[in-house]
């Protein structure tokens, strides 16, 4: 069955597009730019003009700046927009390149996710189409997103809103368990991830920080790395700045480390080691290679040159080059299951421009027939002439 037949809606974040005939047209772009130019979040004199990292959280349909000191900190009940602007070229040929990420927490509301997606498109319009747009799902962020933050922290909870009310626990009720592990994308990054406070969340290879309200316990798995130990120490330092409480560090090999297991519901039957729990966050590095062992890339063309909108496979092999792309159309690149890229040519029609997201979603859902977690595949869009480094790497032969 071809990828454009018999497809279903995505499993998560089923954000439906408005059925507006002029989406993608010159009129549509002008209307969106006018709206974007009135958005306070984009008009602080720095967005689109300075290199750097900017983060906003969606709060009751509004785009609210996230403090610089909290960059890298996210709540699983929220949606965020992240803008990374960087210098491209040198001297007189220098310009700013942009990556826009809309990050969707596992428990964000449909309204927040929809607002983040819409505002991402609006921000791209404000940047005159010079940005790459990335959809980021909490469980499987792209390598490009992970590389932005030396420390990525994901905690339970979210902004107070009419759709979700976050209760503040009393001191006696606090039992928070944080898992500290190295960034799955490599490098020297570390992830701090709040997990269910039970001994079944433990893993011999990581460090865990247990906050009981009146005391903090650090449990160091026997196979954890020095980097994870150091980061856990920093996390505990930050946690104790506002409250002076005792901290106890326990190595798994120590007999007294059983105290942490007991506080997490363990008993005499609970093993002393051999704790194994899949990490709650994956990257493309964790995806298994194709069963054939060959990294096949597939390139599809979305075109209405024939008078009807068609989605056709134009190349299937180990490599795709820039010469395979036609500026009069929109193309979808399946990078051997590691990511799905959409490339929009400068001369693409408004029908082609307006359908790219719908087609990309349907393609990813078609992949579900052979790959259960295909909906987690990173999805990004780039424009002709403003390709990101990651996309250019993906199309190298």
Question: Brief overview, please?
Answer:
With 397 residues, the chain is of the alpha/beta class. Helix content is 20%, strand content 27%. The chain has three domains: 10-139 and 143-149, Severin (3-Layer(aba) Sandwich); 174-282, Severin (3-Layer(aba) Sandwich); 286-397, Severin.
Describe it.
The relative contact order is 0.13. The model is unreliable at 1-25 and 161-172 (pLDDT under 50). The chain has helices at residues 26-37, 110-126, 143-146, 226-240, 258-263, 350-367, 389-394, and strands spanning 52-59, 62-65, 73-75, 79-88, 95-104, 131-137, 151-155, 176-182, 190-195, 207-211, 215-220, 246-251, 297-303, 310-317, 330-334, 340-344, 379-383. The longest helix has 18 residues, at 350-367. Helix 1 (26-37) packs across helix 2 (110-126). The strands form 2 sheets. The protein has a 10-stranded mixed sheet, covered by helices on one side. A 7-stranded mixed sheet has the order 3-7-9-8-10-11-12, covered by helices on one side. The chain contains 7 helices and 17 strands. The protein has 3 domains: 10-139 and 143-149, Severin; 174-282, Severin; 286-397, Severin. The chain is of the alpha/beta class and 397 residues long. Residues 71-146, 191-239 form the Gelsolin-like domain. Residues 266-295 are annotated as: Disordered. This is Severin-like protein. GO terms for molecular function: actin filament binding. It comes from Hapsidospora chrysogenum (strain ATCC 11550 / CBS 779.69 / DSM 880 / IAM 14645 / JCM 23072 / IMI 49137) (Acremonium chrysogenum).
């Amino acid at each position: 069955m071809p990828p454009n037949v018999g497809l279903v809606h995505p499993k998560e974040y089923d954000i439906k597009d408005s059925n507006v005939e002029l989406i993608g047209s010159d009129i549509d772009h002008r209307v969106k730019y006018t709206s974007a130019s009135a958005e306070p979040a984009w008009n602080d004199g720095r967005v689109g003009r300075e290199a750097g990292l900017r983060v906003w959280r969606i709060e009751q349909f509004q785009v609210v700046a996230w403090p610089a000191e909290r960059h890298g900190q996210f709540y699983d009940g929220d949606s965020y927009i992240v803008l990374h602007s960087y210098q491209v070229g040198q001297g007189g040929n220098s310009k700013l390149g942009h990556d826009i990420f809309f990050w969707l927490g596992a428990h964000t509301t449909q309204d927040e996710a929809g607002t983040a997606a819409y505002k991402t498109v609006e921000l791209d319009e404000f940047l005159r189409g010079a940005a790459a747009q990335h959809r980021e799902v909490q469980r499987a962020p792209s390598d490009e997103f992970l590389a932005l933050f030396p420390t990525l922290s994901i905690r339970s909870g979210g902004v107070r809103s009419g759709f979700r009310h976050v209760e503040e626990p009393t001191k006696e009720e606090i039992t928070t368990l944080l898992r500290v592990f190295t960034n799955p994308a490599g490098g020297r990054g570390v992830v701090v991830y709040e997990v269910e406070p039970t001994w079944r969340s433990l893993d011999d290879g990581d460090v865990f920080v247990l906050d009981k309200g009146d005391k903090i316990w650090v449990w160091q798995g026997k196979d954890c790395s020095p980097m994870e130990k150091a980061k856990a120490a920093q996390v505990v330092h930050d946690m104790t700045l506002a409250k002076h409480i005792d901290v106890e560090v326990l190595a798994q090999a120590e007999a007294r480390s059983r105290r942490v297991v007991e506080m997490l519901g363990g008993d005499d039957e609970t093993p002393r080691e051999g704790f194994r729990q899949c990490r709650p966050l994956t990257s493309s590095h964790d995806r298994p290679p194709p069963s054939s062992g060959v990294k096949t890339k597939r390139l599809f063309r979305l075109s209405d040159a024939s008078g009807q909108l068609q989605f056709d496979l134009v190349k299937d092999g180990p490599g795709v080059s820039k010469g395979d792309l036609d500026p009069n159309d929109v193309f979808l690149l399946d990078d051997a299951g590691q990511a799905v890229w959409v490339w929009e040519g400068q001369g693409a029609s408004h029908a082609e421009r307006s359908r790219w997201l719908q087609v990309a979603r349907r393609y990813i859902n078609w992949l579900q027939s052979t790959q259960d977690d295909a909906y987690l595949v990173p999805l990004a869009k780039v424009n002709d002439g403003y390709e990101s480094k990651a996309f250019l790497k993906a199309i190298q032969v």
